[in-house]
Specification:
The protein is an alpha+beta fold. The chain contains eleven helices and 18 strands. The chain has helices spanning 3-21, 28-48, 57-69, 144-160, 182-188, 191-195, 249-267, 305-325, 351-365, 404-413, 429-448, and strands at residues 73-78, 90-97, 102-108, 127-129, 135-137, 167-174, 200-211, 215-217, 220-223, 225-234, 238-239, 274-283, 289-290, 293-302, 335-337, 347-349, 370-372, 394-402. Strands 1-2-6-3-7-18-8-17 form an eight-stranded mixed beta sheet, with helices on both faces. It has a four-stranded antiparallel beta sheet with strand order 12-14-10-15, with helices on one face. Strand 4 and strand 5 form a beta hairpin. Helix 2 (28-48) crosses helix 11 (429-448). The longest helix has 21 residues, at 28-48. The protein is elongated and about 85 Å long. The structure holds zinc ion (2 copies). The site of one zinc ion (ZN) has 4 residues, from loops. One zinc ion binds at residues 142, 178, 420-421.
Length: 449
Amino acid sequence: MTSMEIRSFSILWLLFLVPALGLAEQTPQSLADAELPSLLGIYKDIHSHPELSGYEERTAALVAKELRAAGCQVTEHLGKYENSKLKAYGVVGVMKNGDGPTVLVRTDMDALPVEEETSLPYASKVVAKSDEGKDVHVMHACGHDVHVAAFIGTARALGKLKDQWHGTIVFVAQPAEEIGTGARALLKDGLYDRFGKPNFVLGFHDKADLQAGHIGVTEGYTSANVDSVDVTVRGVGGHGGYPHKTKDPIVLAAEIINAWQTIVSRENNPLDPVVITVGSIHGGTKHNIIPNEVKMQLTVRTYKTKVRERVLADIDRIAKGCAAVAGIPPELAPIVSVPKDMVAIATYNNPELTKRLVAIWKKSLGGENVEIVDPTMGGDDFSEYSLRDHSIPAVYFHFGGVDPEKIAESKRTGKELPTLHSSKFAPIPEPTIRTAIIGMTTAVLDLMK
Ligand SMILES: [Zn+2]
Ligand SMILES: [Zn+2]
């Protein structure tokens, strides 16, 4: 054979060999299936070793190791909290593959102070110290363990599909989602300056009322602005038998709570969703003492920035107005504060990008397995990655975690399924993780092809 003939012969031979090795047939689906046994091991390990928000040391180390093995350049301990004494356990893995867009893929890692009651063989028995120094049980009751397993699966799949995409993938494992501080901590530590501002941002969350194997997504707003508001209503305390000698903050607090309800019912456009919940109220020590103050804690949920600003201003105005009507002197006006480190802004799914991904998921998972779901008044600090003006197109999608039989049973009996954050929340791992990997991998491939 001439050298030319030898070369064509080798190429011919390679053409036979490559499919035989299965190299040419790798797809997100086949890779998800191949990785599933190993990922289930990782999932169960994380599930039985949950860590509270801000304490994700073990989980972060595991994620860093896995991202490195998948071919990423890894940076650990990313994040700067408002409280500079706290260590942050953010992990960033950068996977580069020539020129092209930058896509950010985000998972969260933290668990919750919940005592697990699933009776799964891998159920958590972990007890940890809370920030207040109390012993608390810890559980992955929001499924962030599923997210981590699917995130690792996605990195592995994309590492093996480099012939199908170009650009840079920034894998972000975020701490402290449940307390709404993790995403801001990563951005404050220069996430976008150090690793590049992404062209697209993708995140996912399991859903406790969606069937496993399904993806659910909302166009536009998908989760709400969450503000915590602290209110101290002040009065002039005294004897319970001589109310005319006092200014009673308990009666005033009751007036204020009722007046706040008119923000939703009278001052707000009914087409803009608003929730004002007083979740905590404390005042007084005894039957016959009028106290000096009453303390309240509120959660306030909105979508639009303008509505959010107006509602927060209304809460302040009404509290102070009611106090003036009650004859409280200006120096004792209610103190209304909105802690800046306890805010989650609304997550907005870019409508065009959502439509584009829905089409891709219908192809990769089947049309019947992709649902448009209603938005909720829940919150997730994933929104921070899209920036406050939503200028970086983002999509935050859900994947189901529930056995379809259980959904049918719940419909039949009217008995509610365990929600996220419930001690009985137990997604079925295999189809849940598999669907999340396929959903995320096909989305990234489409944005970077
Ligand atoms: Zn949660
Ligand atoms: Zn969650």
